[in-house]
Amino acid sequence: MPLDIYTLKVVTCVLVWVGAFALSLVHYLNRSVTGPGWWLSGLFLCATALTFTAWHARPLSPVDVFVLNFGMQGSLCLRLAGFRVMCGERLRLTGPLLLSAAGILSNTFLFVGVEGLPARMIVFSSVVALLYGLCSRALLKGATRHEVARIAVGVLKGGNVLAEVVLAGLMLATPASVPPENAGWLACIYVWAIINTMASCLGMVILIFERVQTELVQQASHDPLTGALNRRAFEIEARRMLARHRRRRQPIAVIATDLDHFKDVNDRFGHAAGDLVLSRFGHLARQILREGDLFARFGGEEFIALLPDCDRAGVEATAERLRSMMRDANIMTPAGPVSVTVSLGLALSPEAQTPMATLLREADAALYRAKSAGRNRTMWAMPESRPVADVCD
What we know:
The protein is α+β, with helices and mostly antiparallel strands and 393 residues long. The chain is 64% helix and 9% strand. It has 12 helices and 7 strands.
């Protein structure tokens, strides 16, 4: 028994409205997440366009075609904007908007009437497939293995590209003599729209919750001022890293850092200036350290970095670069420019056999010696006769 096209249109329309309102509620409860506002705008635009064209069974007029294409393709452009904002990309929509405009105008003015329906749908599917591809790329590019929902939604959008290609193939394979209402591809389009609407809304809801969870973990494990790990998070990650490198007998090093005369900065320029100094130091440290290094704030102005797979020369070069960049930094504060130097203590375990507590103690002792020797310098832990593995990343 053939599916009733009008019923499928109405069901699709209702589902989009339900999905839009459900996503609105989720977004309202999690307003800290950036991106869903764009998705909501897209869903409501799509729902409005479907409502405009779904509540009658007559063939679509040119106005209906324009509204439907504008709503559907505009919706995808807005959702693409939301994905890019959520993933930290630049909001570049010129290309997608021009592509959508070309598809809308061609479907409205070039392919008219019932006989132009297959051509309209092929153009529509082609444009939509490209927009889905851009959505998939925005989600999958830069995704980490921990972002399961982001990867899943990205794969879903990639599957949409394949679905649109298959639907276009069905349209091309259907004889021109077959009326659209009797063509199997038209029913397939609406059935797919129903499935895709439910899957997309569910995926976006899960994506919001994943981002909220990521933000909560970030807040619980990182210092908000400097972006460094807090002490508890560092200890957990450092324990795992040391165990891994101990099994592989690879070197691991600690850099203990302290901002010189930081209390004087707070007393003279105020705590707002001190916060800017800490923030600048955290920014510089994250720039200099590698992606696999750990960086943590241990106290008020005391920081620890854990460097795996790096020999003595590499550790010293990293420390000296950090010291010189902080020395040369001219930090602008409300009370005027501030310059601060740092002292650093270094400790190295060539095959990661030294306990973490011992490494931290040695680095701290070296830091104390650097401060006692006049500050603004780097010193190694004692004894300095440890062999250094010839390994450097």
